[in-house]
Amino acid sequence: MKKIVTFGEVMMRLSPPGFERFTQTTTLDIAFGGTEANVAVSLAHFGYEAAHVTRFPDHPLGHSAVSYLRQFGVDTRHIRYGDGRLGLYFLETGAASRASQIVYDRIDSAFMRIQADEFDWETILQGADWFHWTGITPALSQGAADCLLTAIQTANRLGVPVSGDPVYRSNLWQYGKRPQEVIPALTEGCTLVLGNAGLFAHLYDIQEKDNEAAAQALRHQFPKVRYVTDTNREQLSASHNRLSAWLYDKERAYQSRTYDIQPIVDRIGTGDAYMAGLIYGLLTYADPQQALEFGVAASVLKHTILGDANIASVSEVNTLVQGDTSGKLKR
Amino acid sequence: MKKIVTFGEVMMRLSPPGFERFTQTTTLDIAFGGTEANVAVSLAHFGYEAAHVTRFPDHPLGHSAVSYLRQFGVDTRHIRYGDGRLGLYFLETGAASRASQIVYDRIDSAFMRIQADEFDWETILQGADWFHWTGITPALSQGAADCLLTAIQTANRLGVPVSGDPVYRSNLWQYGKRPQEVIPALTEGCTLVLGNAGLFAHLYDIQEKDNEAAAQALRHQFPKVRYVTDTNREQLSASHNRLSAWLYDKERAYQSRTYDIQPIVDRIGTGDAYMAGLIYGLLTYADPQQALEFGVAASVLKHTILGDANIASVSEVNTLVQGDTSGKLKR
Amino acid sequence: MKKIVTFGEVMMRLSPPGFERFTQTTTLDIAFGGTEANVAVSLAHFGYEAAHVTRFPDHPLGHSAVSYLRQFGVDTRHIRYGDGRLGLYFLETGAASRASQIVYDRIDSAFMRIQADEFDWETILQGADWFHWTGITPALSQGAADCLLTAIQTANRLGVPVSGDPVYRSNLWQYGKRPQEVIPALTEGCTLVLGNAGLFAHLYDIQEKDNEAAAQALRHQFPKVRYVTDTNREQLSASHNRLSAWLYDKERAYQSRTYDIQPIVDRIGTGDAYMAGLIYGLLTYADPQQALEFGVAASVLKHTILGDANIASVSEVNTLVQGDTSGKLKR
Amino acid sequence: MKKIVTFGEVMMRLSPPGFERFTQTTTLDIAFGGTEANVAVSLAHFGYEAAHVTRFPDHPLGHSAVSYLRQFGVDTRHIRYGDGRLGLYFLETGAASRASQIVYDRIDSAFMRIQADEFDWETILQGADWFHWTGITPALSQGAADCLLTAIQTANRLGVPVSGDPVYRSNLWQYGKRPQEVIPALTEGCTLVLGNAGLFAHLYDIQEKDNEAAAQALRHQFPKVRYVTDTNREQLSASHNRLSAWLYDKERAYQSRTYDIQPIVDRIGTGDAYMAGLIYGLLTYADPQQALEFGVAASVLKHTILGDANIASVSEVNTLVQGDTSGKLKR
Amino acid sequence: MKKIVTFGEVMMRLSPPGFERFTQTTTLDIAFGGTEANVAVSLAHFGYEAAHVTRFPDHPLGHSAVSYLRQFGVDTRHIRYGDGRLGLYFLETGAASRASQIVYDRIDSAFMRIQADEFDWETILQGADWFHWTGITPALSQGAADCLLTAIQTANRLGVPVSGDPVYRSNLWQYGKRPQEVIPALTEGCTLVLGNAGLFAHLYDIQEKDNEAAAQALRHQFPKVRYVTDTNREQLSASHNRLSAWLYDKERAYQSRTYDIQPIVDRIGTGDAYMAGLIYGLLTYADPQQALEFGVAASVLKHTILGDANIASVSEVNTLVQGDTSGKLKR
Amino acid sequence: MKKIVTFGEVMMRLSPPGFERFTQTTTLDIAFGGTEANVAVSLAHFGYEAAHVTRFPDHPLGHSAVSYLRQFGVDTRHIRYGDGRLGLYFLETGAASRASQIVYDRIDSAFMRIQADEFDWETILQGADWFHWTGITPALSQGAADCLLTAIQTANRLGVPVSGDPVYRSNLWQYGKRPQEVIPALTEGCTLVLGNAGLFAHLYDIQEKDNEAAAQALRHQFPKVRYVTDTNREQLSASHNRLSAWLYDKERAYQSRTYDIQPIVDRIGTGDAYMAGLIYGLLTYADPQQALEFGVAASVLKHTILGDANIASVSEVNTLVQGDTSGKLKR
């Protein structure tokens, strides 16, 4: 069984039931999520060993977050408790032409207060087959960024492949650094990078407008990088999207099938579901095309699942991969 | 007022609310259903007399099942209580490309323990205008199969028309018989049979690939059969189907209009809704085309109704039959 | 900040959750609504001052109705309490080809018992920039009709523009008058009238079949009228509509963009949302086309919002007006 | 099996969940109730045949009321449909020193519009063993009062024992009659009367202050009366009551055990539960003491049951009658 | 009509429904509260004018907080919006021997970021009959403390009576000041002070152990103080308390009746309910004993009401004051 | 950190919300429980390592049961999947004099189908500090009984202390054995036995009527037994109990404090909570009195917690042990 390690903040997600708006609801549904933890939960649900590393406040809400991860079988032994808040985010779910809306409330979280040397990565990554990080972590605090760099370097030393999703959120990065100062060193250690020409231009000053050319430029800049990948999403409305993905394995380009998704039940975490599916695929199948198709199908299914994480099974994903999108009742 | 009798198991249906998955829900919504009882509830809701015959355990859950039937006006006086469980099924509702899923938990039910002579069919069928059965009942136990055969033979003796839906579920039939040994004798007494060429090949060794030819072959094999019918369903996704139906009245073929159904609220029991609608139509209208259109429109409406049974009214069905699918608000 | 005054009955709306039918629900969700109050709530939510004038019973349900209005910032100081019931309506939400259904229970309400001189309109309309009424009010009782006439005449005297939505509901008008005897005098004082050729034929005996010609005829009959407007709705199903609107500003015709709306979350109050949006637009923008587009976009958004009133924000409406209907997540 | 007939209005009851107040709730739980129908439901639940006679509007809410009665096995064949509203009442549940509160909304109901000759009592009461009425019915309208008088007289003619609960509610009686003009003629035909000295003074001008003496005076005034009974309730708080009851069988006095009830789950219908229990007891047991104890124990259990009607079983009541109030878990 | 002004933070309160624990709930009920705002809501509910002054973030959660206050008729015109979070607190409700538990999450709130000169107190307090503050506000930040001091001094200048509840919470006061440095100057301007000997010793170095003596010492230290008051609470369990209160009006001592409260529905805000009741009493009744009894009875009722604020009516409070704690159903 | 191993069936528990009865509910709340697993969950929640051994069906309901255990940190690695059902039980919660009621539906469960040699106890018990079993397991099937005997013998061989709760349920034991044939051999290997004179008479033919004497007789019959213990429960009603416990440590008798518990939120699993508390106490404290008090206080707290398992913390239990039952709010 493969073992994957992820590192990042986990927030409590609070959302009005159904299509209620913030200003009319009297109740909030609880879920937990964080882009890296979502990957871990999905991989654990696919049957692999997944350990998530993070830091929580030592009070009942922090404990609930741990319970959430444990219930899906995620290994939580490396999680640490300390001062600071539990990050929260409030989610209002849109429909048709009304967009979903997120109010973040993650300031001064226990995760942000992480110290560079808080985790013993040597031990944590022992025996791991994959390590995954995203651009949220280094955007939160210097401690988190330092800690992540150590993790990646340790993974490199131990020969553990690393995937990076250097997503950029402009409202983070408030501790004095710009992403361009931090992200390249993290990308250095990656085997797989998620992103497109636009993002690479912003982060790495890559001038190619075309995804393929940009991917090759990225590989030249960071020679460890073998895979470059991203999804293409056509947003017809908050309830209706079309999705496909592409993957470069060194020079070779792969393009997935395109899926029509309607209605969308929960849009959050569909990118993480893609990443988890792709990692599963690359760890399981020899053929990159098969890995790519597994990733997209996993993401497609996530759109029908409430919560941040993709709790679809391998067999459900494979039903889609094999071309059956009929949604036929399973008895 | 017409009187219809149905016979079969009724299960408690437990389903996570909305689109929640089994592994994330903390609550289950209760409904009750069984393919034959669904037909009875729908016909009672259309304003006809409907009596359902079954066997329940004599405890609060069995009593709740009776309450459920009674609330729709189904005559429950012939129901018997005894040992055994209340059959259950767990339903997870899918969306888009995620299929709905059923976990059956019906082993050793009070219904399965039925004795061949447990019901006085002579009395029960007195004055009835129709009797309906399905292939689930003879698949459950020898006692249920024997009991059903007696019911059909009594109906034949009393001149009560019989409809049969000889649906085949491979995971039933665990008491030592194969359907081919049991179903033909039951089909013998039928005026109306639901099914298509594929099913007839499996059950009756009819080799015709085409539905029309297969229907005629069936009528030759079972001379009492006057009507053969089935629905055509195009499954675009778990949320989007297209539906039509066909009917052979002796040699004459009828084809219904096709409906586009989106979104699907509850797919379960839509076949039973068709059967109830068709029986209502055949008992009410002289024109088989009208009966067929009533049946399909009834089934179409059921896709928008929660629970196993079609609680649409005759006037709602007729709105569709008359071509208005605009869903315009009724004040 | 502009100030708008509206006048009309507010009912408690009771609806089964989700897609449950009346005969299967065990709980009813509470909202409050009335076509004129919906306009007030929407305008208050857009940030303008809105005062609603009505009459409630002096018991906890009447107080709840006031709380509802107050929570959106509607000025409730002119509301009066007295004898009579709180009007109710029961709403069942449809889907696909199953229509939504309303059971009204508004007989003998506190509003119907209004006396002609119950309100001091001189004070209420002081400083107002707009007054809005609909054809529901004069259909309820002689007192309500008289009171409304006084309000319109006072508005005219004070130079406050008046909009009228002379909607006709055949099951109202039970106090002995026909709409043709009452509505014209009310229309007399209007700057803006909502309706189409069919309605104008019925109410004002205007024979033009074409909306444009009928609008011009209306302006000739009622010289104060400057704007005539209405929406065009194509009802594909209870879950899927297409919507646009047109506006005549004196001789000049404006036509809005057309929106595809799927799925519809709540169809009730979408006409009121259009009216509120249009009033907002006319009070805010110099260009009638911009006002019209704001109105339609407001109405489109309302289809995605639970309850009678449009609690979309100006910026959400403008996102649509600017052409973005992608429903892209806002962080 | 004994057969009981009851006659009276059934209202939809709408109550905020748990201890929420009217002005803070966003949802209302649905139940149905009416003092006479509550007696019918309880007796049907005890296993006797119970038929309830009433009149409903012919719309989905009226149909829901019928479904409610049917689900408990109450015979609804004599119910008629017609014009008028479905009576409603809104219930807020109190706790400790905060009282429960009811807002009635029953004006102009379909029941109030009953015609004197609307029901064929001869047929309805055929084979009945008991008929029960209360003082609510004659307080609603002349038609209802007339209809009830016919029912009682028919029962007397057919030899069916009659029980009357001539409860007085001052906010009813709005059709021009005083109870003193109407109730005595109804009491005339009774075998059993519920009430105490205070009520008898008010209705029948009986001057005795003591319940026993007043009961005897009542029996002298109405010679058909054999049983006089009432409960004694000590109200310590909305959550804590003490309850007992007394019964005069001709000259002989019986006094029940006293029960301590804490916490009270639902206080509504506990008097009706007593009446149903007592009727059950008198129809089942030879010993009036046993009947009385059954009645009180039934009422005590009702305090723990949500809704208007007592859905306790005979065996649960008998557990209390036999002295076990330990609430010990039944496996 | 009297007008009261309050000033302080309002937090969103999130609590698991019923008796669920934090670690097992999947949903949180929303309420809003803050000790001073609770006083304002209660006084508004009693029918007086109440204005609450605070500062919220300008996002949907801040707007919801305003909606909450507005729905009870609290004047929210003086509320300001700005940067910072919406303070939150998570509440788990206990029962019997299990205590209720609060997790505060109020760090860096918009309220804490208040500037000393953010509000124009001269305008706000114009025409006011009372100003109320508590010890939470000066414990949050220097800006809040400064702002409060200005408010009190302005009230003094305008002749508006001031009440202070100098409650001490050790986990606040994190901005570098000790309460002893701040509270005395605020107490200086008070007419009424809530507290007992223990609190006064801590805050004002008053050595008297007895409440009466301590109250007199307080009055010597702060000559403006006329009333000193506090509640006595006997905590038998989380579900069962006994409550009374005392009041010194200058030299004269008043002692209230003692109430037994069981079961407790919601313990939060019962002290604020006392304060609101007492202020109402002092502004309404000439007799301090009557004011005191009104305050205690108000607090007693609050224990039966969900949420932070006492939404009991004056007539409900007076029912208790007049000695009726029977909780008898009000029809 | 201590490590405890438990073995037994885990069922899905389905219960109507609040005080709803089976026949009136439309929804069921999900929990999971089993007497031995409840002990494991409580001990895990106290912070010890707890592993539960059982067998589930390999479908989503079985997976949900595992998720439930995992979320509390119970080690589920030794759980096996196979054929058979997931055992269920339906629970209706009583109040006051209405008893709670359980309908078991556990026939033919995956656990019952356990094979004697299905688990490698040598590995499972390696490093364990305690093993716990109950009389439910050997009552279910020969395979379960055999498997348990192996577990106890292995524990004995490895020097792991064993506790047994030989509870007798007459409706189990349907596989042909009587408890007297099976339980003694299991008791043989126990260090601690839960039970009283009545149970010991039934199971072991011990004639002593007094608990102390019976305990000593038990120790003579089974020389390994060091501790004998049980709770004393006075059942005043379904909502009000009094609880204490006693413990014999060899010859020495200990008696706990008595607690008054009102209201009871959830009575299920309170015995298991005692056992978990006692095991925690014996593993943690040198003084048996302290262990005993910890056990009783744990059980008392469980009465206030929904679900089968005690999710109180060590510090909450110790608050009670130290005498504070005031339920005072913790901030």
TrEMBL record, chains A, B, C, D, E, F:
Residue stretches making up the Carbohydrate kinase PfkB domain: 1-302
Example GO molecular function: kinase activity
Organism domain of life: Bacteria
Keywords: Kinase, Transferase
A Pfam family per the record: PfkB
Residues spanning the signal sequence: none
This protein's name: Sugar kinase
Organism: Nibrella saemangeumensis
